[in-house]
């Protein structure tokens, strides 16, 4: 009689194949350097991406290889032009060789340790209760090509066959078919298809760049139904599969782009220039705080630069830049407005000759500058009221003693060091 493998637990050596499809046809994956990575290649354990380390169970001895094929993996998931939709299907294909014979009717499960970069996405839930597991496509299946004396056996996974170990970040697939005449060194396979793009779109969670700036790491194995794999030993036997580049989700880059503000920004400036914004994003310039009033907006160009028309700001004002796309909002690049010590222009008035009692309006070139109004003949200084934004002022001629009329009032703009040329207002008697 063939002995059960439940005391041994691990049934397979491993070969994990990963693919990402972004077109209607199935396209598997190609590595950055090669079409395949053989068993002889050594994994640099110091450069691994952060990965869960499940609780060790019974020890195992395995050997295997990890291969990569296809052409589209280097592109990652695709974003629509307006960034509102993400598309792309992740294919995880596991092939292993049994290291022991199986008992008659033996049932198994496939376990896949997902990269730690996926963990936030896999723990999200939509408003209507969907989780990452709902985006594992119904075409996913388990396959035993050598079952029953050479007769293949295929089992298509149902939703209830799939679970997720949140603590250890492990996908578990119950292979609900009894296997027969499976001896050592026989092939068993699991093929998992995940609508990764739709999962990202619906769950609203992006996949970070690979933590080691090199690759995303998976581990896979088929075990008996009760087994808790010792992943450290399985890893030593090279069960890992790696997506060999560091940016699976371009949306992660976009949502984390912080727009910059080119400096210096002067108190005389009416434009802010900056960069590092996603192409087509809306850039907002705010004053005084991250949620302060918006003083200018712009649309970023294809190279990420932008030019925003702004309301002039006083020297010392802190500016904040944020960018918004369909993926969300990210900020903040900052800059402090600096004082421009150039000689200011002469004040502008909406009249050059008025009758006593009329209020005259004027403009200031730069917030923070002051306006002086002095009687040309008596040298008396008159009151000038400056607007809250510092860009305009009013002058009430009724404050002038009517006994000195007609008279000329001289207006000058001051920045603390420099004084503008004069602007003259003639004030005539009333009547």
TrEMBL record:
Signal peptide span: 1-31
Keyword Signal: yes
Domain spans labelled Bacterial Ig: 268-336
Source species, domain of life: Bacteria
Keywords in alphabetical order: Signal
Protein name: Ig-like domain-containing protein
Organism: Latilactobacillus sakei (Lactobacillus sakei)
């Amino acid at each position: 009689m063939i002995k059960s493998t439940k005391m041994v637990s691990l049934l397979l050596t491993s070969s994990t194949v990963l693919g990402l499809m972004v077109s209607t046809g199935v396209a598997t994956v190609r590595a950055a350097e090669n079409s395949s990575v053989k068993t002889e290649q050594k994994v640099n354990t110091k450069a691994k991406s952060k990965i869960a380390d499940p609780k060790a169970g019974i020890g195992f001895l395995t050997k295997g290889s990890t291969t990569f094929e296809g052409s589209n993996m280097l592109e990652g998931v695709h974003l629509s032009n307006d960034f509102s939709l993400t598309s792309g299907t992740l294919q995880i294909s596991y092939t292993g060789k049994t290291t022991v014979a199986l008992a008659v009717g033996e049932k198994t499960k496939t376990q896949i340790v997902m990269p730690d970069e996926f963990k936030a996405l896999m723990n999200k839930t939509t408003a209507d209760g969907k989780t990452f597991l709902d985006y594992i496509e119904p075409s996913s299946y388990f396959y035993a090509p050598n079952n029953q004396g050479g007769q293949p056996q295929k089992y298509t996974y149902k939703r209830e066959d799939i679970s997720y170990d949140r603590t250890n970040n492990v996908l578990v697939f119950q292979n609900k078919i009894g296997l027969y005449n499976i001896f050592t060194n026989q092939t068993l396979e699991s093929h998992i298809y995940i609508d990764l793009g739709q999962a990202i779109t619906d769950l609203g969670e992006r996949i970070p760049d690979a933590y080691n700036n090199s690759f995303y790491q998976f581990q896979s194995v088929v075990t008996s139904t009760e087994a808790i794999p010792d992943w450290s030993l399985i890893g030593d036997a090279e069960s890992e599969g790696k997506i060999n580049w560091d940016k699976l989700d371009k949306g992660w880059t976009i949502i984390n782009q912080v727009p910059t503000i080119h400096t210096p920004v002067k108190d005389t400036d009416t434009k802010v220039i900056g960069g590092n914004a996603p192409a087509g994003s809306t850039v907002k310039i705010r004053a005084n705080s991250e949620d302060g009033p918006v003083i200018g907006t712009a649309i970023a160009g294809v190279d990420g630069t932008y030019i925003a028309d702004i309301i002039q700001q006083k020297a010392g004002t802190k500016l904040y830049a944020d960018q918004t796309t369909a993926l969300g909002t990210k900020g903040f690049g900052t800059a402090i407005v600096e004082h421009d010590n150039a000689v200011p222009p002469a004040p502008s008035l909406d009249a050059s000759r008025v009758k006593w009692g009329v209020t005259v309006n004027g403009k200031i070139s730069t917030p923070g500058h002051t306006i002086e109004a002095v009687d040309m003949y008596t040298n008396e200084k008159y009151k000038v009221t400056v607007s809250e934004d510092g860009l305009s002022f009013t002058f009430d001629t009724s404050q002038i003693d009517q006994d000195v009329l007609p008279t000329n009032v001289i207006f000058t703009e001051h920045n603390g060091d420099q004084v503008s040329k004069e602007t003259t207002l003639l004030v005539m008697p009333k009547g």
